[in-house]
Amino acid sequence: xxxxxxxxxxxxxxxxxxxxxxxxxxxxxxxxxxxxxxxxxxxxxxxxxxxxxxxxxxxxxxxxxxxxxxxxxxxxxxxxxxxxxxxxxxxxxxxxxxxxxxxxxxxxxxxxxxxxxxxxxxxxxxxxxxxxxxxxxxxxxxxxxxxxxxxxxxxxxxxxxxxxxxxxxxxxxxxxxxxxxxxxxxxxxxxxxxxxxxxxxxxxxxxxxxxxxxxxxxxxxxxxxxxxxxxxxxxxxxxxxxxxxxxxxxxxxxxxxxxxxxxxxxxxxxxxxxxxxxxxxxxxxxxxxxxxxxxxxxxxxxxxxxxxxxxxxxxxxxxxxxxxxxxxxxxxxxxxxxxxxxxxxxxxxxxxxxxxxxxxxxxxxxxxxxxxxxxxxxxxxxxxxxxxxxxxxxxxxxxxxxxxxxxxxxxxxxxxxxxxxxxxxxxxxxxxxxxxxxxxxxxxxxxxxxxxxxxxxxxxxxxxxxxxxxxxxxxxxxxxxxxxxxxxxxxxxxxxxxxxxxxxxxxxxxxxxxxxx
Amino acid sequence: xxxxxxxxxxxxxxxxxxxxxxxxxxxxxxxxxxxxxxxxxxxxxxxxxxxxxxxxxxxxxxxxxxxxxxxxxxxxxxxxxxxxxxxxxxxxxxxxxxxxxxxxxxxxxxxxxxxxxxxxxxxxxxxxxxxxxxxxxxxxxxxxxxxxxxxxxxxxxxxx
Lengths: 517, 160
Hints:
The complex is a heterodimer of chains A (517) and B (160).
Chain A: E1 7-10, H1 15-19, H2 22-36, E2 40-43, E3 57-61, E4 64-68, H3 76-81, E5 93-96, H4 101-104, H5 122-127, H6 132-137, H7 142-152, H8 164-173, E6 180-185, H9 194-201, H10 203-217, E7 221-226, H11 231-246, E8 262-267, H12 277-284, E9 308-312, H13 313-325, H14 327-331, E10 334-335, E11 338-339, E12 341-348, E13 354-359, H15 364-371, E14 381-386, E15 393-394, H16 405-410, E16 419-424, H17 429-443, H18 449-466, H19 471-488, H20 492-496, H21 498-507
Helix pairs in contact in A: 7-8, 7-10, 9-10, 9-11, 10-13, 17-18, 17-21, 18-19, 19-21
Chain B: H1 9-24, H2 31-42, H3 49-57, H4 61-70, E1 82-87, H5 90-93, H6 97-108, E2 114-115, E3 121-126, E4 138-140, E5 143-145, H7 150-159
Parallel strand pairs in B: 1-3
Antiparallel strand pairs in B: 1-4, 2-3, 4-5
Helix pairs in contact in B: 1-2, 1-3, 3-4
């Protein structure tokens, strides 16, 4: 026990831990400490991303953090009885947090501070390496910054995996008095929460990454296009931007460099299509989120017609550590052309759901079994949807595929934004195929016919198959429809919504037939 | 004392809408933040806002209406006192969201996009709250709840 001193207790405040009662736990701990005369400092940190253990509370003893979880407010009395303020034994005790295998076996680079610091403490951020990247960047020429990002091998983490350095270099060399940096924080893929975690648990890393991007390409304005579905992230990002402005880290004369970078959060409004970059730009301009034809690329003619960087949250949040530690350091993680780390999100019916940041190259099976621990229901895993609602359902026979952009593409699947949604054997794959088309119909922007009409027809054809109307004929029709959508759609929504459907047809055909037959 | 006649609800909301529109008009791409501001204030975007916003931003009414109707989370009708957003996306489906959806509709006696006759609850579908490791998820107003079984749903609805 830190006699006479005050003990630091950490209770997370991110959406997931709060969704499981973390606020009540925090209140109970404060109340109990007061009534027992224990002096504590309660820190509301972000989440470590070990979500099956949330609310996961920590206590710092002699500089080491010890974890307990999952904790309900009704457990708090018992924790005090067990002397948890001195890291005493308790049935929910997990030992030193950093030694929990799930965490110890990760490569936390982009997420190096997530769950450790108080998200809105700039001091905490800087004490853990924050703003070292920007400090380097302001000493460099624009093209040197871009060169480092290119050399690091970083590719877009939103899903398209386009080399970030090449995108930045295009914006840098594009003519324009005004340029923009936009962050796509419209994380709409089911099974993904990495962007939300960054914004709620370490918002300054995104601000720093965007500032570096702005300085690298000569953009003075930045926008974070952030989902309405993430009210807490909106609040925390806005607070963090205010703090960074007051500290001279945003605005005019960033870090006394003479450079200007202003940043603003723009709230989306619940349209999945606005995660498509041109649709997002339309939305930022205050229009319907209808996609644009490409070319011109947003890098040449983007927001308000100006050269614009459009990057995902994780991409931009990975930039500070690349600048701080160098391209080589980042490059050394990963495999093949997939360099650095991937933030895998284990979701759905999985025993140990959460965030796993790890160098590319582990197999899907290792993620599902070693980290995930199988399904939460204990039944065999039947399918995993990788890469969001437009991603294929991966069959167990493909679970040895390594997590690598190219290896996934080779089996007709995609890594996308890193979400893995696990289903056990009770899943009805026919229903999942139907939902893929239904979702596309709901979210289509309506610009191109294959997507707008095709998705509606897709639902109807699947309904006929499941309803026992001319099953063989309709299966042929469904495949043709999928081909039309894949080949003829303007963007990834209509172009990829058939992938989950085709994966069901190819790998789970027994579920796509007349019911009750 | 006040020599102006008291404004009725409709007048006062039109003044407010105009004030919000003018406050945002000079921002780049003002329409979406402006519409959010109206909705934050009133709970929805009434049809009388359309001509006011169109005039201030020098847009056609069709353009303003087009934007309002495009986005799922902008409302054109008043919501109930509480909005229950049920996640329908895959990670929640994997943990029983379809059953929860059936249960919620039956319990409240409404379908999606409807409000209970007593004006207490509006039920809305939502596609991912980013709580996918602790599914199924629902959001009540601005607060997300995880691992929502039908039983927990009933408790939450009773509590609020």
